[in-house]
Amino acid sequence: MADAETPTDPIEVLLVEDNPGDVRLAQEAFDAVDRPIQLTVATDGTEALDHLRTAAPEHLPALVLLDLNLPGADGRTVLRECKSRPTLRHTPVVVFTSSEEPEDVRGLYDAHANAYVPKPRDADGYFDTVQRLDAFWFSTALLPEVGRS
């Protein structure tokens, strides 16, 4: 019997990020956490929306990490789509971006972002932030079952 604290199936995380360096840091940081994470990367907003629209319910992400400034559909568009679809509206969307502009922060919370986290400026800070996000969303917070409205 599996320990309730250690899921046997990987937790699905969608990273929407166009910067290859940030993608690599996220992959390395999630590889270092103490639980199985299936990290799917979308390099632009259009790819993210395609993934979210076509994924089987059991493969919808448990968490979306969303950059703001993306080619194709931007982060605002992806967030609006997530929060308007019944199968996704309860999925936490964390805006993970380099912008710290007050109007961006307010606007994205107004659009129902679950959190707004500025990207750290160095690798150590990036690892620490990803580990804190992992610990909060997958150890502290209770999340609805994936694919349920």
Low-confidence stretches: 1-7
Could you tell me the radius of gyration in angstroms?
Answer: 14 Å
Largest sheet: 5 strands, parallel
CATH architecture: 3-Layer(aba) Sandwich
Number of domains as seen in the coordinates = 1
Number of extended strands: 5
From the N-terminal CA to the C-terminal CA, the straight-line distance is: 29 Å
Share of residues in helices: 25-40%
Q: Which descriptor suits the 3D outline? A: globular
Per DSSP, what share of the residues sits in E-state strands of 2 or more residues? 15-25%
* Total helical elements: 5
Structural class, please? alpha/beta
Describe what this molecule looks like in 3D.
By secondary structure, the chain is α/β, with parallel strands linked by helices. The protein has a single domain, classed as Rossmann fold. 40% of the residues lie in helices and 17% in strands. It contains 5 helices and 5 strands. It has helices spanning 20-31, 45-54, 75-84, 102-110, 123-140, and strands spanning 11-16, 37-42, 63-66, 93-97, 115-118. The chain has a 5-stranded parallel sheet with strand order 2-1-3-4-5, sandwiched between helices. Helix 1 links the parallel strand 1 and strand 2 (37-42). Helix 1 crosses helix 5 and helix 2 (45-54) runs parallel beside helix 3 (75-84). The chain is globular and about 30 Å long.
